[in-house]
Amino acid sequence: MYSEFNHLNITVNDDGVATVLIPSPGSVGRQQAEVHKEVAAIWRHLDDDDHVRVIIVTGTDDEFYRSANIQGLKSIPNLSKDDTFELAQRLGKEGNDIVYGIINIDKPVIAAINGAAEGGGLAVALLADISIAADDALLVDPHIAMGLAAGDHAAMIWPLLCGMAKSKLYLLTSDPLSGTEAERIGLVSLAVPRDDLMAVARDYAERLAHGPKYAIRYTKRALNQWLRLGGITSHDYSSALELLNFLGPELGDAVENAEKTGDH
User: Fold this and answer.
1) Which CATH superfamily includes the segment(s) 9-198+213-261?
2) Do the beta carbons of residue 22 and residue 8 sit within 8 Å?
């Protein structure tokens, strides 16, 4: 069932707990694109696997998942109009598949945020039903720093999690925050010492795997109505505005500035 996934490492134990390990693709654009495609597609496969009851998603070493960086976006300002349009369509679809894939899968998703979570990685981290961060994990929405409107998940869920004031503070500045601070403002469910992260995530996963399956799934389904409403009011709109920035000068300016300052 998971043979088509060449980058994600997916295991399922006897209790029905699936663990999805996201690799660290670095700054290689092609590999970043392939990992992003797999992260977008995995939710449908997990939903179809009748043995899976709970999903843990985590990253490698000190990186949870960073779906893009300035180096990865460097080529976009030089693309032709047609190529830019095709790229925007692909990224828009994959972004929606990540967001709505996590929202609409009835099986509970636990994010074990072991390190840096940015872009699509932050969407996975925050849209998970239970988000557990290492206290020293680094969470950042980099869109503004990259000259892009904050699309993906941000307008949909940040105000629900931590309120409008904190949402604007971090989304308008691209300032990073630690796992500890993210827990303090309500952005994640828990922050724990890094050495305890996977043990805590597995404990919650086992509890959910042995709990009343449909009561848990239906509760998630009902709660996520708030996120589906957020999709109507803000997510689709914010994603369109982000992709519109692909056609403007600010992305190129951000790349140029990053190269001058050495912030890659």
Assistant:
1) 2-enoyl-CoA Hydratase; Chain A, domain 1 (3.90.226.10)
2) yes
